[in-house]
Specification:
- The structure is a single chain.
- With 361 residues, the protein is α/β, with parallel strands linked by helices.
- The protein has two domains: 115 residues, Orthogonal Bundle (Helicase, Ruva Protein, domain 3), CATH 1.10.8.60; 164 residues, Rossmann fold.
- The chain has 13 helices and nine strands.
- Helix 10 packs across helix 11 and helix 12 crosses helix 13.
- It is elongated.
- The protein starts with a strand and ends in a 24-residue tail after the last strand.
């Protein structure tokens, strides 16, 4: 199970304050914004039951291209075995947090316990205070590092004795100060004669790998037992990603975006899923405002100008490949597979990309 920290007392107090009925004033010019999972303003126009391109890591929209499927398998393996350190790398917006949360969800029903830290830019004392509460240690462990280490050692040994694993997942690890990276390394020394007692997953941007190459962090780098990396989507994967999300949200991809629109989104987003979401959502808003569907490429170009996205550099055309795309509205998982040996795909260049974009008009 993954630990969740309690909100601070100030936050809890602010949440409890409610304006008395009849005293709340509404701005007559305000527009009610849909909550995550609710039907967006453009939903009825495009036949969508919910927003397909929210930036939150919604597990219903989990997308598994070959690289994502491989990384998720590695994360699940590392969290289900006493592997010590695991390193997950990927540029900003490539979906690291989404896959980490998917891996944590997969162990949610087991006796294994993981703590997820999403903001590691802390001082040493704050770091140990956070971990002590997340691992349900005593209040004394929150103020004393020595007490923290003694209690954590006993806790992980007891859990290991009954066949359970304990782990720590640190997101945005490239932002950690050197002091905390050293503390993380020392926590990794919790072990028995035969096994590691604390699994540690460090997830971060490529700068994290550069930092681990520094001589001062060579000992931490040597302890990495498993390393995996996410890359931006290929154009095939971008098309499948957009199509899968639209289908899960109840839409028909071919009536919402054109091939040219998807190509422009991929090129300006550089295959980064987060940027793809931003461009798609704003393109749908633009199409709704203009009352036009499918959304034409000029709407996407206007969105790119609004977000100050530079025109992509010309790239040599890669051979088109037929991709197998499957999605399930019930599971919410979209998978892209490689073509089967007898699929008849020749691998030759297809200027119109009909195989690549067969789910778009």
């Amino acid at each position: 199970m993954a630990a969740h920290l309690k909100p601070s007392s100030d936050h809890a107090e602010s949440m409890s304050r409610r304006e008395p009925a009849g005293e709340r004033t509404l701005d007559p010019g305000a527009v009610a914004m849909p909550l995550a999972g609710q039907r967006p303003l453009y939903g009825e126009f495009f036949g969508l039951s919910e927003s397909p391109f929210d930036l939150s890591p919604n597990p219903r929209f989990l997308f598994l291209a070959p690289r994502q499927r491989e990384v998720l398998s590695n994360l699940r393996y590392s969290m289900a075995a006493a592997k010590g350190f695991t390193l997950l790398l990927g540029d900003a917006g490539t979906g690291k947090t989404t896959l980490v949360r998917a891996a944590l969800a997969a162990i949610g029903e087991t006796s294994n316990r993981y703590v997820f830290v999403s903001n590691p830019t802390l001082g040493r004392d704050e770091f140990y205070e956070l971990l002590a509460e997340a691992f349900n240690l005593s209040p004394a462990a929150q103020t004393s590092k020595a007490r923290f280490l003694l209690e954590l050692q006993r806790d992980v040994e007891a859990r290991h004795a009954v066949g359970s694993l304990t782990g720590l997942v640190v997101d945005e690890a490239q932002s950690m100060p050197y002091e905390l990276l050293e503390e993380i390394r020392l926590l990794g020394n919790l072990e028995s004669a035969t096994a590691k007692l604390l699994n540690i997953v460090l997830s971060g941007q490529p700068e994290l790998a550069e930092r681990l190459n520094e001589s001062s962090l060579r000992q931490l780098k040597q302890r990495v037992a498993l390393r995996c990396e996410l890359a931006p989507f290929t154009v095939d994967e971008t098309a499948g990603y957009i199509s899968g999300r639209l289908r899960i949200a109840g839409g028909s991809p071919g009536t919402i975006f054109t091939r040219e629109t998807v190509m422009a989104i991929h090129e300006y987003a550089r295959g980064i899923p987060r940027t793809i979401n931003v461009l798609c959502d704003n393109a749908l808003i633009g199409g709704f405002a203009a009352q036009t569907r499918p959304v034409p490429v000029d709407v996407v170009m206007e969105v790119c100008r609004d977000f100050d996205l530079a025109a992509p550099e010309a790239q040599p055309e890669a051979p088109a490949r037929s991709m197998v795309v499957t999605s399930s509205a019930s599971s919410g998982v979209v998978e892209i597979g490689r073509p089967t040996p007898n699929s008849g795909e020749s691998g030759s260049v297809n200027p119109k990309r009909k195989q690549r974009f067969r789910f778009f008009a």
